[in-house]
Specification:
There is one protein chain. This protein has 1 helix and 18 strands. The protein has 302 residues and is mainly beta. The strands form 2 sheets. Strands 4-7-8-10-11-12-13-15-16-18 form a 10-stranded antiparallel barrel. Strands 5-17 form a two-stranded antiparallel sheet. The longest helix is centred in the first third of the chain and has 15 residues. The chain starts with a strand and ends in an 8-residue tail after the last strand. The mean pLDDT is 89.
């Protein structure tokens, strides 16, 4: 749905009708009116590492994992210096996965991640309002991990990979200016883009006891973004989609507890190491893995 504001009057119309209205208004204003000032904002997923401990899933042939990457956000995300981005970051993020053990040290499955619009954090003042963004940000895809045996007792080197396709909502304000630079009318467009996000994590871990594992690692993951401010020629006007964004590196460390019957719980803290386009503070995440099917006898990881 698009909305056109002309002479203080708002008209809500389907996209094709709105375009016709915009063209008619542009002709009416002046053939020499050539500038469009655009402002955008998008709701994008919170940056995060792969939520893995680096250890194999053990005796579980299949399991469900439920987690959040924003259990505790210690500082409000802020725009990085020099970045031209209009973003809201979900304060509440939830994820779910179904994993299947392919070999004793390799698992693969499906992953879903969901960030709520309600309570989302603005990275700066002056952005288009959150209320103008339609709905949550969410995505699904593949998750896998190989827990490599490096020849040290109770030590594993986890190599985790996630690939998700997020549906990212955004709003775009296009203000058409006359030859004197005065606003004539504004087109408000609400859209969604599908954006791929990949994450590759290296997670060394040490099993201190049958019930306690400590781990730490680094994840490379891209950060979706959208240009906040842009001036264009009306003849060249095109909607800038949400971009996959730059690569970020995220350090994390945590502990995993193993309970009876293959149930595991994980708590970790993470910190993005570079600020592009958002500067994050330390954040806590948590997850729990619930077995769906188990071996009748313990399977030794090889």
């Amino acid at each position: 749905m698009r909305r056109v504001i002309h002479n203080g009057i708002m008209i809500s119309t389907p996209g094709s009708i709105a375009r016709i209205a915009l063209l008619a208004a542009a002709v009416t204003v002046s053939a020499a009116s050539t500038t469009v000032k655009q402002q955008r904002a998008a709701l994008v997923p919170h940056q995060q590492p792969v939520q893995r401990s680096g250890q194999p899933i053990g005796d579980n042939r299949a399991e469900v994992a439920l987690g959040t990457s924003t259990l505790s956000v210690l500082t409000k995300p802020e725009i990085a210096e020099g970045a031209n981005a209009g973003l809201y970051i979900p304060r509440v993020h939830a994820s779910g996965a179904v994993r299947f053990r392919a070999t004793p040290r390799f698992d693969i499955g499906l992953l879903w991640d969901h960030g709520l619009k309600a309570g989302a954090l603005s990275i700066q003042d002056g952005q288009p309002p959150l209320d103008e963004i339609d709905g949550d940000v969410y995505g699904g895809g593949l998750t896998m991990q190989y827990a490599a045996d490096v020849g040290v007792s109770n030590f594993s080197l986890g190599l985790g990979f996630d690939l998700l396709f997020y549906s990212v909502p955004y709003v775009e304000y296009s203000t058409y200016l006359d030859v004197d630079g005065r606003p004539v009318f504004t087109d408000i467009d609400h859209e969604r883009d599908t954006v791929p996000v990949f994450a590759f994590g290296v997670v060394p871990s040490w099993k201190l006891s049958p019930r306690l594992t400590v781990f730490g690692g680094v994840t490379a993951r891209n950060h979706p973004t959208i240009k906040r401010l842009e001036n264009e020629n009306v003849l060249d006007e095109s909607s800038d989609d949400v971009e996959g964004g730059p690569l970020n590196f995220v350090a994390n460390a945590g502990v995993e507890f193993t309970f009876g019957n293959g149930l595991r719980a994980m708590l970790h803290m993470f910190q993005p190491m570079n600020a592009d386009p958002v500067r994050y503070g330390p954040t806590f995440g948590a997850a729990v893995a619930i077995p769906l099917a188990r071996d009748s006898k313990p399977a030794a990881a090889r």
